[in-house]
Design brief:
Layout lengths: L7 H6 L1 H12 L5 H9 L1 H6 L4 H5 L13 H24 L48 E5 L5 E5 L12 H11 L1 H18 L8 H23 L12 H18 L10 H11 L1 H16 L1 H22 L5 E5 L8 H6 L29 E5 L14 H13 L3 H12 L4 H62 L6 H18 L3 H8 L4 H14 L2 H19 L7 H34 L3 H19 L4 H8 L7 H16 L1 H28 L18 H12 L4 H10 L2 H28 L11 H21 L3 H5 L11 H14 L10 H7 L1 H11 L1 H8 L3 H5 L4 H16 L2 H19 L9 H29 L1 H4 L3 H22 L5 H7 L7 H4 L3 H12 L1 H26 L4 E5 L4 E3 L7 H11 L4 E5 L7 H13 L4 H8 L9
Antiparallel strand pairs: 1-2, 3-4, 5-6, 5-7
Length: 1130
Amino acid sequence: MASRKMTFFEMWRSKKERGELRRRTNQLRLDPSQMSQLLGDTGVRRALQNSRIEGLLPPIGMEVFRRLTPASLRWIEQPHEAEEMALEMSERSEEVTENNMPKQTSDLETGKPLPIFFGDPSHDLLNTPLEELDPFYESQKTFIVVNKDNIVHRFNAEQACYLLSPFNPLRTAAIRIYLHSLFNFFILVTILTNCVLMTMSDPPAWFKVAERVFTTIYMFEVIIKVVSRGFCFGKFTFLRDPWNWLDGMVISTGFLMEFIDFGKVSVLATVPRVLKIFAVIPGLKTSVGALVRSLKRLLNVIVLMLLCLSVLALIGLLLFVGDLKRKCVIWPSYEIDNYTDYLQDHVNYYYRSGSLDALLCGNTSDSGRCPEGYTCLKAGNNPNYGYTSFDSFGWSLLSVVRLMSKDYWENLVEMTLRAAGKRFLTFFMLVVFPGCFHVLSLAVAVVAMACCEQEEAAVGQLKQREGEFGQILEAIKRSEEDEGASRAALSPEPEKKESVEGPDRDQRACSPCKSADCLLKWNCCGCCRWIKQRLNIFISSPFFDLGVVICLVLNIIFMCMEHYPMTERFSRVLNEAHLVFTLIFAAEMFLKLIAMNLDGYFRVGWNIFDSLLVAISLLELLIVEHLPCVLMMRVFRLAKWWPSFRMLIKLIWTSVRALWDLTLVLLIMVFMFSVVGMQLFQQDYKDNVCRISVDCHLPRWHFNSFFHSVHVIIRVLFGEWIEVTWDCMEVSSRTTCLIFFLMVVVIGNLLLLNLFVTLLLSSFITEAEEKNNLQIVITRINRTLGNLLRKKTQLNPDQADNEKVPRKKYLDSAASHELVLEVQDRGHLTSESCRAPTAEAEETAEDDEETEIKRYPEDSKEQNGDTPKDCCSNDGTGRVWSNLRRACFSIVQHKCFEYILLIIILLSSVALAFEDIHLQHRQVLKTVVARAEQVFTCLFLVEMILKWIAFGLKKYFTSTWTWIDFLILQVSVVSLAADRFGFSELGVFQSFRTLRALGLLRAVSRVQGLKVVVQALVRTVQSMFDLLLVVLVFWLAFSILGVNLFGGKFHYCSNETSQEIISSLYIANKSECLLLSMEEDSPDILWKSTELNYDNVLSGYLSLLHLGLSADCVDVMYAAVDATWGIRSL
């Protein structure tokens, strides 16, 4: 029976186990004695019988790695011919099934390292043709070659190009060259050099010569591969590997472009040259293979996505065809000769201030209206150069894709609703957005499933490898036990002699290391050891770490004080403080070096980090140059004593290592699309820039240089692609631009999605760490303060006996905690746990009360007052009161009471929704809402009184949920009183009335599922606060760096009258701006700062928050690009 596949969340939860499994399997090794037993001991082989390992190992007495000889090749050819005949017979008879065929061993596939049970080949067998190790290929005329990294490479044993046998010296030399690391390094350097030359927007005259040199090198690589592997006939030849097709494309395009000018089509020669990087680096080849497999799984989803988008595009075509051409056109007072030309003239349209497109309108009752003097007519083109519309299936499909990607979608929805009517908002809310969301969710699910399957397969191989290693060790142990039993009579004296001689031999072997040991450990004299011991005690003290942390925090505070502008005195104080803290940290490093010596000091990773910071800080003092990176890195020293901060850094580092290959693939794709975009559209942007710019200057986003092309591609990866696509289609070919940008969007999103899923599945382990010195000293301080306070407030035994003993116990937080645990364990709530805890507690309230009264009769008297008999008697007013409480208790515990309250809560919330801006003009509705508010307040007041009578005031006010009900009710009562006495227009009461929106919180306590969720959220507040503090400190480092880099540089010269920003090309600093203001005699020319800047740490926080959380983060990028760098000298 096949095992059940793990879900994504099960795989996500097993990150720790998978990480430990990987570490264990990477450490699996067999020592030489174990290898000799595995290969030459019959007892071990007998124990491994009927296992996969036994079938892969050679017979006893035969070498594992055997050279390929003509005799062995003839021995392979004989069964090969017999197998061909048998295969022909089987094809005719159709009796051989697929299950009867031998299976390929996954551990011996091409490009994988040798399994551990084969050992390492000798040096003379490296890069040499060897006989096959996999039984699957023994009869297929192949041989293997193992390089120095023990990576298996498989070749065809047939004659390469019908000329070169495996023993031909030319082919053997080609194989050695092909597998040599220097050859791969040379090809990689050639590709990278070629890529660097591709980034030149204006290539020099010798560029053609360099291209010919690169083509020659690639041709030499192809010749080496063809000579070593063969060309196309047979397995493992040159053309049988799809990665080698890139070489064929590079060579063919290189030669064709020498004789034919392909124009823009020549950009196709760039793509295979960049993709060759994947073929050279094995790790990238594996990552690309995984991406291709996930893309195959996505084919059905892509087809479904296209069908859904086509349906939505057709619906949009039928609903909104021609609507986006309706514009506000001024109606002339004179007679028009040519009505068509008049409608096509954009001068006659109404434009909003700062808008490039005319104001849209509609002729329905709920569509947009035109200003006075203008008429709504179909005129001119569609918005955005005519590319935003539903007039044809293609443009409608592009609009739907734009909605699905959520790129500037609000503008499209706004224009459509203004032209067609607000009623079509339901089309977007109920059809477009849910449809696109479900399609994208399906794509995410398929990619996550593919990644889970690949990860599960890798885990299966790791478990198999670990199990086989355990089998080998068990077999060797069993064989040694059998041999030990047969040799029990042997004398142990030789072993004793060896053990006696061992220390002398070790001492002689270590004698050359005495000088190094003395240099690194400083144990040459007793005085040095005495000083080290005293200093070691000093630096190991928790209070020493406390002092370092205090200095570090003070240093961070001084760093946060830097701002713009600063006085010279304040700047001098900060520099002196920086010098003092640098000397303090240098002294800390010096003391630790003496106490721990060089060897012990540099064995600790944090000490290496500290020493680097101190060295760079001292170098900064020598060169008198301000290095802001040093200041930023000091913040990260807090992670040494802060476990949460350290966990965040470990998480980031682990994620970077896990995503290294995929991140490199993403960077290569960004580079490739940037180069292709520059080569495709560079000339078009130069020639047709006036179509997209009024002043005929290039916009910020263009393909005129490699640097700007990278910016455009990164912007597309962040989801903003439609605007640059419009500009591209306006200056170049529409088809080319659409194909290019859609490819960037699809491939980029696929890579980002795989990055995200891999990040979730990557292994990082939060190990339980011991308390550091800072935590120890804080614990001691808290314990000391607690002891001091306890001595002041300690009571004597007589006072303790006279304390009141609690008499009633209802609910505590343990009930809700058990409920949360049940949800976590079972995934749902049982019927017993869903019962109202208040009701369950009240069922036993009377019994508990009677029990407490029996135990503490005096306390019962004190609690019930002077005449408890009257309250609890069976006659008179006591009986009436008791019956009344029982009746109220039965009412509030009834299910119908809870349901009625839920309905009242929902109705009161609905009534609040009618209090909009139009309520003042609807007197009837206003009266109904006011009366409803009074009725609901009275009902909630009745509910509170019933619970007071049923539970009592003490029980009622011991629950957090009833406190919430009480406070919300007080808000309604105060609001009604303010309306009654005419104070409702006061600002205080208007603000107080907004708290009525909290009325929905009443429903939380009455729905058990919501109650559990809220309680779970409350319990996570402390962890969330700790995480928020860590993130704020992490951002503090970058805010300090931003202040040092950009402080006082996000300024510009502005003309307040014309609202014009004067370019930094003309006005570079504040002095020039003020000089211009004096020359023009205009006080409206001012030197201003951008809203988001880095003039101080708090402003830097706001800018970082905008960059990290806002979709529109280009404002900060524009300010950084336009930053004026000549200000601080003024």
